[in-house]
Amino acid sequence: MWQKALENAIAKTRRNIERFGDQFPHVSKEDKYLLNPNTDWTNGFWSGILWLCYEYSGDEIFRNAARKTVDSFRNRLDHHINLDHHDIGFLYSLSSKAQWMIERDPKAKELTLAAADVFMKRWRPEMEILQAWGPEGNEQNGGRIIIDCLLNLPLLYWAYEVTGNQQYLEAAISQADKTRRFIVRGDDSSYHTFYFNQTTGEAIRGGTHQGYEDGSTWTRGQAWGIYGFVLSYYYTKNPLYLETSVRMAKYFIERLPKDHVVYWDFDAPVTPDTKRDSSASAITVCGLHELLKYLPENHPEKAFLQEGMEKSMHGLVKSYSTISEPDAQGLIKRGSYSVRSGNSPDDFVIWGDYYYLEALMRLDNGHKGYWYDRPQGMSE
């Protein structure tokens, strides 16, 4: 039932290859993607879109374009271009790791492991966290974690499984545990960020960078939590991660608006001008699809979560996709980068397009994205 939407997304991506050339799409302005030469945290999502399109269609045009992006990511790592942040997982899981999963190219595996080592430079042993942004010791960001990091952790889990190096695993588990303890609130909502004392590791306070206010729940952050915790469950089998994903998912679905695509923050006042974040709903659909695989049929929330996933996906396709706009560059409208700062608050965002396409692939043929993979010779 999702074939029309998939075919439409693939046709748009084919046209975008020529439009974008060697550049990478980020967010849009006046319905056209702003491009960069692989310098932003979002560039891996374009690679992931290309690999998904190749796997669905088998068309070499997508594989050739995806391989070129991996070459660009190799150059980015070699020259350490804007890698002083935790989004290394977003960059390399969807580019070189995806290539490894699809083609078993040993050079792609080597590049991905090198990226994991760059990510590990974010580890701060005094606090037992992976610092989100900025240099070590930075006054503003030195002790900060953010919920987005949960989707970067699969790079470290994967690196552990490939190498057996416990340091990758221990860092990922510590980060997931800290996020669960300090970012997820008692009512199953979430902070965007949390601060720790850089010397003692003492917890200081929760806050936000993207949300409506420090105590609100930024919907994309909640979505990262839903998907991120279930991926940590996949790798560790820690039932607390699965439970947390279920709780956060229930909170999310209980607050869906009538068209089933969320506003940018659950606590922002709703007016005719309140911005949406279609990317948050797309991420959540992917997370719910993964989550439902691990819940027994008699789980008390399974039917509710299943219905919420289906309603969210139908809402995205019906009211937010660009199916009826053949010349559109983006796949889903009304994504928000940062409503708080006025930065692309109601536009195409490349991560929204990626997760929308991953969600379609999941629902159409059971694709699992590029967040986990078992090395050859290991059973899943």
UniProtKB/TrEMBL annotation:
Pfam families: Glyco_hydro_88. One of its GO terms (biological process) is polysaccharide catabolic process. One of its GO terms (molecular function) is chondroitin hydrolase activity. Keywords: Hydrolase. The active site is at D87 (nucleophile), D148 (proton donor). Substrate binds at D87, D148, G206, T208, R220, W224, S338, S341. SUPFAM superfamilies: Six-hairpin glycosidases. Gene3D superfamilies: 1.50.10.10. InterPro entries: 6-hairpin_glycosidase_sf, 6hp_glycosidase-like_sf, Glyco_hydro_88, UG_Glycosaminoglycan_Hydrolase. It comes from the Bacteria. Belongs to the glycosyl hydrolase 88 family. This is Unsaturated glucuronyl hydrolase. It comes from Paenibacillus algicola.
